[in-house]
Design a protein that fits this description.
Elements: E1 6-10, H1 14-25, E2 30-34, H2 40-57, E3 63-66, E4 77-80, H3 96-113, E5 118-121, H4 126-137, E6 144-146, H5 149-164, E7 171-172, E8 175-176, E9 184-185, E10 191-192, E11 195-196, H6 203-214, H7 216-224, H8 230-244, E12 249-258, E13 264-275, E14 278-282, H9 289-311
Parallel strand pairs: 1-2, 1-4, 2-3, 4-5, 5-6
Antiparallel strand pairs: 7-10, 8-9, 10-11, 12-13, 13-14
Helix pairs in contact: 1-2, 1-8, 3-4, 4-9, 5-6
């Protein structure tokens, strides 16, 4: 007898609520919206609101709120947003001290209740948090990825489309490396319906777009006073959908590298194929010498934060 897939969302805040709405509306599965005990009623209230919304929009997915990890047992997908969001003036790396204990607690519970779930980490500093999740759970590298490149590439894609005066549907853009100020927008792989982006936008304009992309999250934090949530949620759901529906999508995600691009034992953003087995393939694209140098700088930044995580006692 067929049953719906089970999607567990850790954190019922802004991103968690939007994740739940998207997953339910797309009918990807039944959704459990988890938060800590003091916020259980908030999670249940948001879930009830979304269930009532199903009567208006016509989706049949169930949405429930909980603070009990046992309710998440056997989840097919686990999307982790738990943690303190950035405030104006903070970098993502500033969140290590506050969010490391949280990701460790999440990982220990995931190991007990849903170790086989395909895990998507959104919590910052993302590349270090997804590294720690994998270390604690001990899951295969194929079953965990960080949501970063999908979001960063989307921001890059938007800025390019607006500058070029073309439909966003025709822009193909990719951002690799760590989810931070050293991320690597790959101009050599950027096209507008197969036409190189350089045919549309001057070099100086491209450089300013690259810088805006790198600061894209911070721009929103400074405007709203907190982190973005609509686009990050959509990016994570694109990954979850690719897994649940075996779509074999090529997406830029923080994946565990074991020699690819010259790096080992590190999560950084690279092109991957996500299908029913998780991260099914890491695609090694040809980079220019300049892009190789930028990726090296970005990887060094990620490694520095990971080293801090490794030295921090559990």
């Amino acid at each position: 007898m067929a049953t719906r897939k089970k999607i567990a969302l850790i954190g019922a805040g802004n991103i968690g609520g939007e994740l739940a709405r998207l997953c339910a509306n797309k009918e990807l599965g039944d959704v459990w919206l988890y938060d800590i005990a003091p916020k259980e009623n908030y999670a249940k209230g948001k879930a009830l609101d979304l269930e009532q919304n199903s009567s208006v929009l016509g989706y049949d997915s169930h949405v429930r709120g909980t603070s009990n990890w046992a309710d998440l047992e056997g989840a097919d997908v686990l999307i982790i947003t738990a943690g303190i969001p950035r405030k104006p003036g903070q970098s993502r790396d500033d969140l290590v001290a506050s969010n490391l204990p949280i990701i460790r607690d999440v990982a220990n519970n995931a190991k007990k209740y849903c170790p086989d779930a395909f895990a998507i980490v959104i919590s910052n500093p993302l590349d270090a948090m997804v590294y720690e999740y994998k270390r604690v759970v001990g899951c295969p590298k194929e079953k965990v990825a960080g949501m970063a490149g999908v979001l960063d590439s989307a921001r890059f894609q938007l800025f390019l489309a607006r500058e070029a005066g073309v439909s966003i549907k025709d822009v193909r853009a990719m951002v690799l490396g760590g989810h931070g100020d050293d991320m690597v927008p790959v101009l050599s792989a950027c096209t507008i319906n197969a036409v190189p982006i350089t045919e549309f936008i001057a070099k100086d304009k491209l450089q300013s777009i690259i810088e805006r992309t790198r600061k894209g999250g911070g721009e929103i934090v400074n405007l709203m006073g907190t982190s973005a949530y609509y686009a990050p949620a959509s990016a994570a759901v694109a990954m979850a959908e690719a897994y649940l529906l075996d779509q074999k999508r090529l997406l830029a995600c923080a994946a565990y590298l074991d020699g690819e691009y010259g790096y080992k034992d590190l999560f950084i953003g690279v092109p991957v194929v996500i299908g029913g087995n998780g991260v099914e393939k890491i695609v090694q694209i040809k980079l220019t010498d300049e892009e190789v140098a930028m990726l090296k700088k970005s990887a060094a930044s990620v490694q520095a934060v990971v080293d801090v995580v490794k030295k921090t006692p559990a």
